[in-house]
C-alpha cells in the first residue's frame, strides 16, 4: 500500500476492484465506513455482487480478466472529458517525455516482438535523451511522440462501447463508475484504488496494476491522503517475507539476486555497475548491497574477496513457484522445505503439484497442523503410500502468540508481537528451528577443506549461545551497525559501500537506531496529525506513512489543496514539514535540482505512465486470459504474447467447446488461504463448513440445477465435487453479443481439518503473468454438471 | 437503574460474523455440525449453542435492484417477555439493565419459553448427568449480562468493526435509530426502526433496511394473551395452592392446551423431566 | 512479556485488573459494586498480552488472555489505532489456534513407502534433516558454471514463510541462500 488502513477514511472515492475487502480484509471497512460518513463514495467492481458491493454506492460487474479494458476505458473517459490533473501529470509523470522513433504498436503487438522467444526487445521502447543523458520533454504534452499523446492514442481505442461489450458491464453502470471515480481528478479531492489477488492473478496481472497506477497518476491521486494505489495483502506478513527476500529473484530490500545468466554479474563490480542507476535514490544501491554482504558474511566479507559476493548463489533461470513444481514433476529436485505452506491446496493445478511431491526424496514440513501437503502420501489424498518413497519430516511449529517477533502489515507497519503463552506440546518457534538446524549444519560442515563448503562456512551465524537464538540480535542485525564504532546505525542514510557498515535489510534500517529502541514495539497511539500515528509501530522506509507524499504539494512545494495537505516546503526553516515524514530529501528545496522529483526512486524522479521496463509492453494492453470464451476484440493477439507457456503435460489447456463457463476462485471471511489455520478450528469450521460453487439463477436453470444440489465442476486439469449455491449475485454477461456465464468458488478446502471439501485449485491452470509468474487463478474455463 | 439497549444498524453490517464467534468465545459455546443451507448463512436460526446467527438475504427491492442484506439475529430482550411470563419455575427474569436472562440452576427444561418466544430465539439443550439421566436446559443470548456487570459491553458489540452495533442508554439508542432511519431513507425507502411495542419494546433495537418480513420477523409481535393469563393469573394462584414443582407439571398441561404448540420430538415429556 | 515497552497508562489498561479500567471506557460506570456475583468473571486474574493478528495484512491488534496455562479469551486490542478493539471472525477466534485438538504437538516422521506417521524426538529429526540436506547439497553443488562462480544447488527447494515473523524470514532467507539454494519461493507468488 502506498497509504495505510487508517488513511482510507480520508478518501473521496474508493474504487475497489479485484478485491473484496468486506470479506477478506474486514477491518478495512471500519475505515471505509468512516469515509462514507465523511461523504466519500465506494465503488465496487467485481464479477460477483459481494459483501463489499453491498456496502458500495456504485456496483459494476465485469467478466473476469477484463480489468485492462475496464480501466483503459476510464483513462479514455478522463482524457476525453478533460478530468485529469494536468499540472500534476506534466510535472510528476513522464507524460512530457518524448519516445524515440521506432516505437510502434500494431494489432496488439508493440515494436520489438520476437515470436519464437515470446519476448520483446525493450530497447525499442526508448526515451529520447539530451547529450547529457537527460530525457527530452515537452511540457505542453502536444508533441506527437510525447508519452501523453501516445497514451491518449493507445486508449482512444478503449471507447465505452467496445469496453462494455468486452467486459460485459451494463453501459449505464460503467458510466456511473467513470463519472464517480474521475471526479477525484479535481484539486482538493482524492480517490484510492484498492486491489488484491483478483487483480494480480492473471496473465496480465502486472499490467492490471500498472493501468490502475496510470489512472491514479492522471487524476493526481498518488501521494495524497485518501489516495494512492493500495494492494491489500492476504497474509499477515507476506509484506515482510517479500521485503526480506523470500522470493528467488530478490535478496532483502528488493536488491536483485545475482544471475549466472547476466555476464556482468560475474563480479561484484560488474553487478553493481549493471544494476545501479546513475540518478534517483537507487544510485545508493552499492551501499545497501555491500552492507547486506557484511551482515551475512561478517568478518569473512572483505574488500579483497568482493565482500563475499561470490558466496551468493547465482541462478541461471526463473525459479518461481510454477517452474519449481515443473522441475519437481520432472524429478529434478530431491529435497524441499515447506514453512507453513500448503501448495497442494493453494498451488495452481494442484493435482499436478501433489503428484510432483512424490518425486522428492525428502520433504520437511514445519507447521501447526498436519496439512494436506504434509499428508500427500496418504490414502485420503488419493495416493498409494506403498508407491511413494518420499521421506517426510513434520515439525510442530508454535503459533504466532507462542513466540515473539515482528510482522509488517499491508501499510508497511512493522508491529511487534509478544509471547503470551508457552508453545503447545513440543511445538517450537520457527526462529528456533531455523537456528538449531543452521547450527547442526555448521557442525556437520565444520573444518571441511572443500571449496564447495566455503560459502556456507563463511556465513556469519552468531545469535547467542543457547539453542534458542537471541531474537534481539537478529533484529539489530537487520537494522545494521556502524562497524567502526560497533553501534547501531541510525538509518539507511548512514550506510556505506566500503565495508564499514552492515545492514540486513536496508529498507528497514532505522527501526532500531539505538540500544533498547526497537520501534516496532512502539505503542503510543496518540494521533500525531492526519491519523498517521507516527509513534505507533514503525513504517518502512523511515517511518513514512504515505509514500510519494512530495506529490501532495505542487512544484513550488505548497499543498495542492488545504484538504489534502500532507507535507510542504517551509522556506523559513528551509525544510519540508507537515503531518508525515517526508518521502523526499527533507532539505531539498523545490527550486533546487531534483526539487520536484516526487518519485525519487525512479531515475528521472517521475512516475512512469510509459514503462519501458515491463516484459509485455510499455502500456497495458488487453489480452484475453489463457482460457477465454471469446476472441479478443482489441487485436489479433488472443493472449498475452509475452507469457511463458509450459509444455502440455504440465498444463492442459481447455477450450470453450468443452468448457464454456468462466470460473474464478476467491476466499470467504471465515477461512484463510489454503484453510489449514481455520479449517482446523471448530468455530470457523462451523461458520463455513462446506465447499460450494456460486452460480447465477440463469445458469442453474439452463443446466437443471437447484440450490444446494451437489455438482461436479470440471476443467482441462481435473474435476471437483461441491454444493451449488444458486444466487442472484451472479448474472450472466453479454460479451460481444453472446451470453457468457461465470461461476466462482472458494479455494480453501482440502481433506484435512474439521471442515473438508474438494480443492478448487485442482481446476486452475499452470500459466502465469508475463512479469511475475503469478498464476492465473482468477480466470479459467470450466463446465458444471449435476453430481448424481 | 439505567436500561440498556443493543442498537443494531443492519445497513452498516458487512456480514463478517465476528459477532457470532465473539459470542461463542466469551460464553464458551461449542461448535455444532452445520449443514449447507444454500447461502453463506451457517445456521437457520439460533440454537442452544449458537446464541446469535447472522442472516444473509438476497432481496430485490422495489426498483428491481439487488440488495444483499445482513442481520445479526439474537434475543430481543423484550420489555414484556413472553418467555418470562410462561416460565413455570421463574427461571427467567429481567435484570436491572432490562436484559432477560435464564437462571440455569432453576431452569427445568420444560420448553415453554422456546414455544412462546415470538422470535424463536430460545432453544433447549439435552445433557446427561453422571448417572446417565437426561435433562434439559433452555439457552439463549444473555446480552453478556456478566460483562455488563463489570462495565463491559456485550462481546458481539465490542467486536463489531463497522459500528453496526452499539450498546448504551436506552433512550439515546432509540433516538439514534430514529435519526439513522432518516439518513438512509433515500437508499432504503422501507427502512424502519424495529422496536416492537406489542412486547413493550425491546432491548435490542434494530434499524432495518427493509420491512420486517424480509428478515422473517413478525410485523407486530405480541405476548400471547394466554401467556399473560398464565403468568399473571394461573401461576401465582397455582403456586400458592400446590407448590412450585407440581405446578410445573400442571403448567405443561396448560401449555399444551392453550399455547398453539409446535410439533417437536422432544416435547412428549415436556415438563416431566424436571425432577 | 510486554512490560518493557508499554507506557504506564497502557500497562494499567492491559494488566490483570483491567475490567474496571475498561469499564469506564465502555459504559462510563462500574456496576460491580451494585450487583453481587457468584461466578468468577471469565477474564479476572488472566494475564493479558498484546499480539498482532496472524491472518490478513490489516495487522489488527489482539489481546490474548491466558490463565492456568491456557488461552481463555482473545479480543481486539483497544489501543491499536488500526482496529480500535474491533476484529473480524478470524481474529476473534485466535484462541482456538491454541486450544484446537488438531494442533501438532510432537514431531512426526514418515518413512519411505510407509502408510503412517511415527513420533520421533526433535534431536533425531533435526539431525536427520541436517544429514539429508548435506547429502543432497554435496551431491548437487555447482561451484562454477561457464567460467562464472555460481555456488548453488538446484536440488533443494524452500517454500513458504508469509506467516513467519520478520526475524524468521530474515534468518530463513540468509540460511537458504547461504546453502546455495536457488529454488526459494513463498506465498507472495501464489
UniProtKB/TrEMBL annotation, chain A:
Its cofactor is [4Fe-4S] cluster. Pfam families: Molybdopterin (PF00384), Molydop_binding (PF01568). PROSITE patterns: MOLYBDOPTERIN_PROK_3 (PS00932). Residues 2-438 form the Molybdopterin oxidoreductase domain. It is found in: Cell envelope. InterPro entries: Asp_de-COase-like_dom_sf, Formate-DH-alph_fdnG, MoPterin_dinucl-bd_dom, Mopterin_OxRdtase, Mopterin_OxRdtase_prok_CS. Keywords: 4Fe-4S, Iron, Iron-sulfur, Metal-binding, Oxidoreductase, Periplasm. Coiled coil: none annotated. It comes from the Bacteria. Signal peptide: none annotated. Residues 663-780 form the Molybdopterin dinucleotide-binding domain. GO terms for molecular function: formate dehydrogenase (NAD+) activity. Its EC number is 1.17.1.9. PANTHER family: FORMATE DEHYDROGENASE-O MAJOR SUBUNIT (PTHR43598:SF1), TUNGSTEN-CONTAINING FORMYLMETHANOFURAN DEHYDROGENASE 2 SUBUNIT B (PTHR43598). Belongs to the prokaryotic molybdopterin-containing oxidoreductase family. This is Formate dehydrogenase subunit alpha. The gene is fdhA_1.
From TrEMBL, chain B:
InterPro entries: 4Fe4S_Fe-S-bd, 4Fe4S_Fe_S_CS, FDH_Electron_Transfer_Unit, Formate_DH_Fe-S_su. SUPFAM superfamilies: 4Fe-4S ferredoxins. Its main location: other. Gene3D superfamilies: 3.30.70.20. Residues 4-34, 66-97, 98-127 form the 4Fe-4S ferredoxin-type domain. PROSITE patterns: 4FE4S_FER_1, 4FE4S_FER_2. Keywords: 4Fe-4S, Iron, Iron-sulfur, Metal-binding, Repeat. It is found in: Cell envelope. It comes from the Bacteria. This is Formate dehydrogenase, nitrate-inducible, iron-sulfur subunit. It comes from Neobacillus rhizosphaerae. The gene is fdnH.
From TrEMBL, chain C:
One of its GO terms (molecular function) is formate dehydrogenase (NAD+) activity. The keyword Transcription does not apply. Its cofactor is [4Fe-4S] cluster; Mo-bis(molybdopterin guanine dinucleotide). Keywords: 4Fe-4S, Iron, Iron-sulfur, Metal-binding, Oxidoreductase. Its EC number is 1.17.1.9. It is an enzyme of class 1 (oxidoreductase). It comes from the Bacteria. Residues 46-102 form the 4Fe-4S Mo/W bis-MGD-type domain. PROSITE patterns: 4FE4S_MOW_BIS_MGD, MOLYBDOPTERIN_PROK_1, TAT. It is found in: Cell envelope. Belongs to the prokaryotic molybdopterin-containing oxidoreductase family. PANTHER family: FORMATE DEHYDROGENASE-O MAJOR SUBUNIT, TUNGSTEN-CONTAINING FORMYLMETHANOFURAN DEHYDROGENASE 2 SUBUNIT B. This is Formate dehydrogenase subunit alpha. The gene is fdhA_2.
Amino acid at each position: 500500500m502506498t497509504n495505510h488502513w487508517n488513511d482510507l477514511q480520508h478518501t473521496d472515492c474508493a474504487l475497489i476492484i479485484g478485491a473484496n475487502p468486506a470479506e477478506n480484509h474486514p477491518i478495512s471497512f471500519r475505515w471505509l465506513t468512516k469515509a462514507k460518513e465523511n461523504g466519500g463514495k465506494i465503488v465496487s467492481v467485481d464479477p460477483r455482487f459481494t459483501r463489499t458491493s453491498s456496502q458500495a454506492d456504485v456496483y459494476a460487474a465485469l467478466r473476469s480478466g477484463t480489468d485492462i479494458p475496464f480501466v483503459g476505458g476510464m483513462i479514455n473517459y478522463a482524457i476525453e472529458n478533460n478530468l485529469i490533473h494536468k499540472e500534476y501529470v506534466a510535472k510528476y509523470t513522464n507524460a512530457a517525455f518524448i519516445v524515440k522513433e521506432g516505437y510502434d504498436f500494431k494489432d496488439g503487438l508493440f515494436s520489438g516482438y520476437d515470436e519464437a522467444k515470446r519476448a520483446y526487445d525493450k530497447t525499442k521502447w526508448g526515451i529520447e535523451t539530451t547529450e547529457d543523458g537527460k530525457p527530452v520533454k515537452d511540457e505542453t504534452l502536444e508533441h506527437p511522440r510525447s508519452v501523453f499523446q501516445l497514451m491518449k492514442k493507445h486508449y482512444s481505442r478503449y471507447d465505452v462501447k467496445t469496453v462494455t461489450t468486452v467486459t460485459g458491464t451494463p453501459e449505464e453502470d460503467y458510466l456511473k463508475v467513470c463519472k464517480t471515480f474521475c471526479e477525484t481528478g479535481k484539486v482538493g479531492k482524492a480517490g484510492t484504488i484498492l486491489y488484491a489477488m483478483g487483480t494480480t492473478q492473471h496473465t496480465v496481472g502486472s499490467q492490471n496494476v500498472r493501468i490502475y497506477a496510470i489512472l491514479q497518476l492522471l487524476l493526481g491521486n498518488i501521494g495524497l491522503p485518501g489516495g494512492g494505489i493500495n494492494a491489500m495483502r492476504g497474509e499477515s506478513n507476506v509484506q515482510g517475507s517479500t521485503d526480506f527476500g523470500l522470493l528467488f529473484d530478490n535478496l532483502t530490500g528488493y536488491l536483485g539476486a545475482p544471475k549466472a545468466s547476466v555476464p556482468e554479474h560475474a563480479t561484484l563490480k560488474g553487478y553493481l555497475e549493471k544494476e545501479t542507476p546513475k540518478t534517483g535514490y537507487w544510485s545508493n544501491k552499492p551501499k545497501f548491497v555491500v552492507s547486506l554482504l557484511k551482515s551475512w558474511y561478517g568478518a569473512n566479507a572483505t574488500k579483497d574477496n568482493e565482500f563475499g559476493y561470490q558466496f551468493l548463489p547465482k541462478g541461471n533461470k526463473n525459479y518461481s513457484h510454477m517452474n519449481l513444481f515443473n522441475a519437481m514433476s520432472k524429478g529434478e529436485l530431491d529435497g524441499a522445505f515447506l514453512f507453513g505452506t500448503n501448495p497442494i491446496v493453494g498451488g495452481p493445478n494442484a493435482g499436478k503439484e501433489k503428484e510432483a511431491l512424490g518425486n522428492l526424496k525428502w520433504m520437511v514440513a514445519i507447521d501447526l497442523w498436519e496439512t494436506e501437503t504434509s499428508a500427500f502420501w496418504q490414502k485420503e489424498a488419493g495416493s498409494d503410500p506403498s508407491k511413494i518413497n518420499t521421506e517426510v519430516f513434520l515439525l510442530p511449529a508454535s503459533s504466532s502468540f507462542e513466540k515473539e517477533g515482528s510482522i509488517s502489515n499491508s501499510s508497511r507497519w512493522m508491529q511487534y508481537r509478544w509471547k503470551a503463552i508457552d508453545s503447545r506440546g513440543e511445538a517450537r518457534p520457527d526462529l528456533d528451528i531455523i537456528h538449531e538446524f543452521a547450527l547442526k549444519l555448521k557442525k556437520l560442515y565444520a573444518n571441511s577443506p572443500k571449496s564447495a563448503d566455503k560459502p556456507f562456512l563463511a556465513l556469519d551465524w552468531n545469535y547467542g549461545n543457547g539453542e534458542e537464538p537471541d531474537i534481539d540480535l537478529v533484529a539489530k542485525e537487520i537494522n545494521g551497525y556502524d562497524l567502526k564504532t560497533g553501534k547501531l546505525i541510525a538509518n539507511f542514510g548512514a550506510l556505506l559501500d566500503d565495508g564499514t557498515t552492515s545492514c540486513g535489510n536496508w529498507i528497514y534500517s532505522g527501526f532500531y537506531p539505538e540500544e533498547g529502541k526497537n520501534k516496532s514495539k512502539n505503542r503510543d497511539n496518540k494521533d500525531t496529525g492526519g491519523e498517521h500515528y507516527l509513534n505507533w509501530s514503525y513504517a518502512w522506509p523511515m517511518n513514512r506513512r504515505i509514500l510519494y507524499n512530495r506529490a501532495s504539494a505542487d512544484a513550488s512545494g505548497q499543498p495542492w489543496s488545504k484538504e489534502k495537505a500532507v507535507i510542504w516546503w517551509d522556506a523559513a526553516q528551509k525544510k519540508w514539514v507537515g503531518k508525515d515524514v517526508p518521502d523526499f530529501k527533507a532539505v531539498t528545496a523545490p527550486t533546487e535540482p531534483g526539487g520536484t522529483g516526487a518519485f525519487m526512486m525512479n531515475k528521472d524522479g517521475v512516475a512512469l505512465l510509459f514503462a519501458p521496463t515491463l516484459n509485455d509492453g510499455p502500456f497495458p494492453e488487453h489480452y484475453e486470459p489463457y482460457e477465454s470464451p471469446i476472441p479478443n476484440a482489441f487485436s489479433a493477439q488472443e493472449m498475452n504474447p509475452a507469457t511463458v507457456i509450459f509444455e502440455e503435460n504440465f498444463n492442459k489447456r481447455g477450450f470453450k467447446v468443452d468448457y464454456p463457463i468462466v470460473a474464478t476462485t476467491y476466499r470467504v471471511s471465515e477461512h484463510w488461504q489454503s484453510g489449514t489455520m481455520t479449517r482446523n478450528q471448530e468455530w470457523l469450521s462451523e461458520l463455513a463448513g462446506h465447499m460450494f460453487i456460486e452460480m447465477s439463477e440463469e445458469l442453474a436453470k439452463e443446466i437443471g440445477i437447484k440450490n444446494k444440489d451437489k455438482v461436479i465442476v470440471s476443467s482441462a486439469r481435473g474435476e471437483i465435487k461441491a454444493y451449488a449455491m444458486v444466487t442472484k449475485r451472479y448474472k450472466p454477461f453479454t460479451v460481444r453479443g453472446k451470453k457468457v456465464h461465470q461461476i466462482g468458488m472458494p479455494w480453501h478446502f482440502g481433506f484435512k481439518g474439521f471442515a473438508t471439501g474438494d480443492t478448487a485449485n485442482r481446476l486452475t491452470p499452470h500459466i502465469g503473468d508475463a512479469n511475475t509468474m503469478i498464476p492465473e487463478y482468477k480466470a479459467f474455463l470450466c463446465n458444471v454438471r449435476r453430481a448424481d | 437503574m439505567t436500561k440498556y439497549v443493543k442498537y443494531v444498524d443492519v445497513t452498516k453490517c458487512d456480514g463478517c460474523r465476528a459477532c457470532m464467534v465473539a459470542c461463542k468465545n466469551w460464553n464458551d459455546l461449542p461448535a455444532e455440525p452445520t449443514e449447507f443451507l444454500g447461502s453463506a448463512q451457517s445456521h437457520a436460526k439460533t440454537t442452544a449453542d449458537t446464541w446469535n446467527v447472522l442472516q444473509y438475504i438476497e432481496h430485490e427491492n422495489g426498483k428491481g435492484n439487488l440488495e444483499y442484506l445482513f442481520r445479526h439475529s439474537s434475543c430481543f430482550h423484550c420489555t414484556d417477555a413472553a418467555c418470562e411470563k410462561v416460565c413455570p419455575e421463574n427461571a427467567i427474569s429481567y435484570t436491572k439493565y432490562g436484559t432477560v436472562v435464564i437462571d440455569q440452576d432453576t431452569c427445568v427444561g420444560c420448553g415453554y419459553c422456546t414455544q412462546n418466544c415470538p422470535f424463536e430465539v430460545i432453544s433447549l439443550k439435552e445433557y446427561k448427568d453422571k448417572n446417565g439421566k437426561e435433562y434439559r436446559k433452555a439457552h439463549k443470548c444473555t446480552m453478556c449480562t456478566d460483562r455488563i456487570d463489570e462495565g463491559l459491553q456485550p462481546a458481539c458489540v465490542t467486536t463489531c468493526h463497522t459500528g453496526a452495533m452499539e450498546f448504551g442508554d436506552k433512550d439515546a439508542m432509540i433516538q439514534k435509530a430514529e435519526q439513522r432511519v432518516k439518513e438512509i431513507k433515500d437508499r432504503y425507502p422501507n427502512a424502519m426502526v424495529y422496536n416492537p411495542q406489542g412486547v413493550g419494546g425491546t432491548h435490542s433495537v434494530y434499524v432495518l433496511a427493509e420491512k420486517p418480513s424480509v428478515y422473517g420477523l413478525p410485523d407486530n409481535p405480541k405476548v400471547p394473551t394466554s401467556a399473560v393469563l398464565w403468568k399473571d393469573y394461573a401461576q401465582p394462584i397455582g403456586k400458592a395452592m400446590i407448590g412450585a414443582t407440581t405446578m410445573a407439571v400442571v403448567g405443561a398441561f396448560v401449555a399444551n392446551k392453550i399455547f398453539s404448540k409446535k410439533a417437536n420430538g422432544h416435547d412428549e415429556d415436556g415438563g416431566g423431566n424436571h425432577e | 512479556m510486554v512490560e518493557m515497552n508499554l507506557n504506564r497508562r497502557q500497562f494499567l489498561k492491559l494488566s490483570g485488573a483491567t475490567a474496571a479500567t475498561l469499564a469506564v471506557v465502555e459504559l462510563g460506570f462500574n456496576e460491580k459494586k451494585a450487583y453481587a456475583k457468584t461466578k468468577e468473571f471469565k477474564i479476572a486474574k488472566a494475564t493479558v498480552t498484546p499480539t498482532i493478528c496472524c491472518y490478513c495484512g490489516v495487522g489488527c491488534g489482539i489481546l490474548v488472555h491466558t490463565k492456568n496455562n491456557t488461552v481463555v479469551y482473545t479480543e481486539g486490542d483497544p489501543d491499536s489505532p488500526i482496529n480500535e478493539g474491533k476484529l473480524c471472525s478470524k481474529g476473534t477466534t485466535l484462541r482456538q489456534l491454541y486450544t484446537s485438538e488438531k494442533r501438532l504437538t510432537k514431531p512426526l516422521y514418515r518413512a519411505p513407502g510407509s502408510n503412517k506417521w511415527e513420533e520421533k524426538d526433535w534431536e533425531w529429526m533435526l539431525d536427520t534433516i541436517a544429514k539429508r540436506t548435506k547429502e543432497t547439497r554435496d551431491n548437487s553443488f555447482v561451484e562454477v558454471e561457464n567460467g562464472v562462480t555460481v555456488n548453488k544447488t538446484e536440488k533443494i527447494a524452500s517454500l513458504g514463510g508469509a506467516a513467519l515473523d520478520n526475524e524468521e524470514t530474515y534468518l530463513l532467507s540468509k540460511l537458504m541462500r547461504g546453502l546455495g539454494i536457488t529454488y526459494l519461493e513463498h506465498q507472495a507468488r501464489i
